[in-house]
Design goal:
single chain; 159 residues; alpha+beta; N_methyl_site; transmembrane helix; Prepilin-type N-terminal cleavage/methylation domain-containing protein; membrane; 5 strands; transmembrane; 2 helices; five-stranded antiparallel β-sheet
């Protein structure tokens, strides 16, 4: 009786064609993910710039709020003034408006009581007892596309 060796086909691996198809599919997926990483990096850098913008605005506004009510930098000049930024990638501009509130209860309720002080006699009723500080901080970072601007407003009372 002759024994003849049986030949078995090896079915436990991948063929070269299957590997090539898998590599093509994987490369398309990798290219899509690479585009997402690129977009995420730009978005992250822009978010970082916005965070710095807000921090710069807060720092400058707090510096103005810390000044005395009658300080020269808080005079109502009717024009835009520049504030020296800590970070050279930002431009800070602010305006100050003087107001006289005759009746704080009415002002708080929103029913009036706000008026611009009149100049002239120098009487106590002519002087401002409220200042509105409006500040605009603009990013001058040329690396990122787009314009990033933050405007904040604060009220200052004497004392």
């Amino acid at each position: 009786m002759g024994s003849r060796a049986r030949t078995h086909e090896n079915t436990e691996g991948f063929t070269l064609i299957e590997i090539l198809i898998m590599m093509v599919i994987l490369s398309f997926v990798a290219l899509g993910i690479a585009g997402l990483f690129s977009h995420a990096m730009v978005t992250n850098a822009s978010g970082h710039d916005y965070a710095l913008l807000a921090s710069e605005a807060r720092f400058a506004l707090e510096a103005l709020q810390a000044r005395p009510f009658v300080d020269a930098t808080l005079l109502d000049t009717g024009s835009v003034q520049n504030w020296p930024p800590v970070n050279p990638n930002f431009l800070i501009e602010y305006t100050v408006e003087d107001f006289r509130v005759e009746n704080w209860t009415q002002a708080a309720s929103g029913s009036g009581g706000w008026g611009a002080p009149t100049s002239g006699t120098g009487a106590a009723t002519d002087t401002a007892n409220l200042k509105r500080i409006s500040m605009t901080v603009t990013s001058t970072n040329q690396v990122l596309r787009g314009r990033r601007v933050l405007t904040v407003t604060s009220l200052k009372i004497p004392g």
